[in-house]
Amino acid sequence: MEFREQVALAPYTTFKIGGPARWFAEALTEAEIVEAVEFARARGLPLFVLGGGSNLLVSDEGFTGLVLHITLKGIEQREDVFDVAAGEDWDGFVRHLVDEEYGGVECLAGIPGTVGGTPIQNVGAYGQEVSDTVTRVRVLDLTTLKFEEFSNADCGFAYRRSIFNTMQRGKYIVTHVSFRLRQNGEPRIAYADLKRYFQGSVTPSLKEVSAAVREIRRGKGMYIVPGDPDCRSAGSFFRNPVISANHFARIAKAEGVEVPHYPTGEGAVKVPAAWLLERAGFHKGYTMGAAGISSRHTLALVNRGGATAADILALRDRIVAQVDERFGIRLEPEPVWLG
Ligand SMILES: Cc1cc2nc3c(=O)[nH]c(=O)nc-3n(C[C@H](O)[C@H](O)[C@H](O)COP(=O)(O)OP(=O)(O)OC[C@H]3O[C@@H](n4cnc5c(N)ncnc54)[C@H](O)[C@@H]3O)c2cc1C
Fold this sequence. Notes:
With 339 residues, this protein is α+β, with helices and mostly antiparallel strands. It has three domains: 4-70, Uridine Diphospho-n-acetylenolpyruvylglucosamine Reductase, domain 2 (2-Layer Sandwich), CATH 3.30.43; 75-219, Uridine Diphospho-n-acetylenolpyruvylglucosamine Reductase, domain 3, CATH 3.30.465; 237-327, UDP-N-acetylenolpyruvoylglucosamine reductase, C-terminal domain (Uridine Diphospho-n-acetylenolpyruvylglucosamine Reductase, domain 1). The protein contains seven helices and 21 strands. The protein has helices spanning 30-43, 90-99, 192-197, 206-219, 245-255, 273-279, 309-327; strands spanning 4-8, 20-27, 47-50, 56-58, 63-70, 75-78, 81-85, 102-103, 124-125, 128-129, 134-141, 146-151, 172-180, 182-183, 242-244, 262-263, 268-270, 287-288, 291-293, 301-303, 336-338. A five-stranded antiparallel sheet has the order 6-7-13-11-12. The structure holds flavin-adenine dinucleotide. Flavin-adenine dinucleotide (FAD) binds next to β3, β9 and β13.
């Protein structure tokens, strides 16, 4: 395998931002992953695992260690279980499943990135999360250099969380993910946008639902179309915060309007971050130099052209401060920071 030096990282990210990697390599096999880890160890280099770069903001200075791009390919099927290599394109896999009439991930169509990236933050959209269908995650343990297999329960999945982005962050490299799907199952139409789309029509097929999801996403700039400036983002930049019911009641009283929210566990509610941003003055199309908010989606911070990571961070800080001041909520960014 080839280890290259000073490789620009911006083209490997959907933000199109970031300086170079001191070292960069592509792993096509599990053996190459081990080789790269040994290369980094021998030189005392920090290691960063790169998938599709769609949930990533790279610093302007770049990264002084080794960036390992996961490009393992292959899909194997055993009855209704699909074992997929981490470097497969996620949306390509969804298309494959829907073509074969398998349901369970049709609402996750159009999400960029790799299959290996999906368990990290338990990717979710339109009423589905990968944790609904993941049965097994194969990983390399970076402390022991042994391969291990995790069950769904081992992964500790929750909203935009798993052990891979919390307690065990940076400890494992995902090499394969297995999913159990349902053949000829009914599509899931749980979200308002989708219900509206199919209002009055007979039960749509899995293919129709995934196509609708891509179309709805495209309308919001959340489906990557080359040349669309609203797509130079990392998707939603902030997680929807979960706050206590008491805190929520105080906000509702102070705002004097109906505040959208979803119950989530006892005494807790989830509030849409987009609503908080809008109320705090950050509307679609908001600009701050070369950084801004997508003209079609309040939660997507975008590179308007020539933005640096510092520009995006300055906008992030302004939003976090103003939302905190108004609501007493500290928003958490969703994308991973590399620098
Ligand atoms: C336009 C747009 C829309 C989006 N919509 C959604 C959405 O609807 N729902 C949603 O949940 N997300 C969404 N995202 C975010 C993003 O697409 C997902 O989080 C995706 O799963 C990230 O995968 P990736 O391969 O690009 O990971 P990367 O961005 O390359 O990496 C993200 C993190 O995962 C780690 N990682 C990646 N691959 C591996 C691996 N094989 N082993 C170990 N660690 C790994 C990286 O080290 C890093 O910490 C969107 C992003 C964009 C740009």
